[in-house]
Amino acid sequence: MPNVFLHSSAIHDAAAVITGETSRYILSVLRYKTGGELSIFDEKGRFFKGIITSCAKNAVQLSLTPQTPPNTESPVSITLCQGLLKGSKMDIVVQKAVELGVKEIIPMVTSRTQLDYTRKIDRWRKIAIEAARQSMRVVVPEILETANFHALTQSIHSTGAAAMMFYEGGGKGLKYPLESEREEDNIYVITGPEGGFTPEEVKQAEASGVTIVTLGSRILRAETAAISALTLIQFIFGDMGRGPVDCGRAAPSDKEV
C-alpha cells in the first residue's frame, strides 16, 4: 500500500482532501481510482488507512481510519550536522540520511565550505518528505536553518549530548566512543564538506567535548562519509544491528482523528 504524506491541516473529521502535486501523483503515477487504499501520515507522527471516496482532475478525497504506526523509527535520536556540499551532493545526503533514520539535519558552514549561503532549505525539506514516504517512516526529519560550525559546536556542548566528528586525519575507531562512553539517546554526527575539516576546527571541536572519530585509512568523498557514518551508528547503536521488527500495520486505534 503506497505511503503518502499529508500536512495535518488537510485532515478534518476522519477525512482529507488531497490537491496539487500529491493528487497528481496518486491519479497519474499510481493510477488510483475510487476505492483505492493508501497509507497516510502527517508531521505529527499520526498514521491512517485512507480509502479514496472520490476523484476529480485536481483533487482526491479520502476517508481516514487511525492506525498504529509501523515500527520504523530508530531508538536513538541522531542529528546530522553536515558541511554544505556543492550541487546535488547535498540532496543525496539529505535523502539517504532520512532513509537511515536521522531525526534532524543541520546544514553547516565550515572553513572549507564553498557555499556562503543557500536557498535550498525548502528543496531539502521536500526531499526529506519524499524519503520518509519511500522508507515507510511516519516522522519527517526536520531540516534546520544553516548554522556556523563554531556556534553549532558550542551549542552542542551546552546540551551535554554525545557528539562525534568524523575526520579523515585520524581519531578513535567508531565502536570505541559508542561502547565506552555513557549511553546516550541523542547523538550529534558532524561530517565535513569537500576538503574536510581544518586542524583548527578539529581542535575547537575537541575543546567543546566532541569525540573525533575516523572511518579508516581511506579518504572518502564527503557524501560517502556521511552515509557511511550514519549506517555504522545505526548498526552499532540503533536498530540496524538488531533482529527483525514488526513493520506491519496493527489494527485501527479507537482514538479520534
Automatic annotation (TrEMBL):
It is found in: Cytoplasm. GO terms for biological process: methylation. It holds the Pfam family Methyltrans_RNA. Residues 18-63 form the Ribosomal RNA small subunit methyltransferase E PUA-like domain. Residues 73-234 form the Ribosomal RNA small subunit methyltransferase E methyltransferase domain. Its EC number is 2.1.1.193. One of its GO terms (molecular function) is methyltransferase activity. It catalyses: uridine(1498) in 16S rRNA + S-adenosyl-L-methionine = N(3)-methyluridine(1498) in 16S rRNA + S-adenosyl-L-homocysteine + H(+). InterPro entries: RsmE, RsmE_MTase_dom, RsmE_PUA-like. Keywords: Cytoplasm, Methyltransferase, rRNA processing, S-adenosyl-L-methionine, Transferase. Specifically methylates the N3 position of the uracil ring of uridine 1498 (m3U1498) in 16S rRNA. Acts on the fully assembled 30S ribosomal subunit. NCBIfam families: PRK11713.1-5, RsmE family RNA methyltransferase. PANTHER family: 16S RRNA (URACIL(1498)-N(3))-METHYLTRANSFERASE (PTHR30027:SF3), RIBOSOMAL RNA SMALL SUBUNIT METHYLTRANSFERASE E (PTHR30027). Belongs to the RNA methyltransferase RsmE family. This is Ribosomal RNA small subunit methyltransferase E.
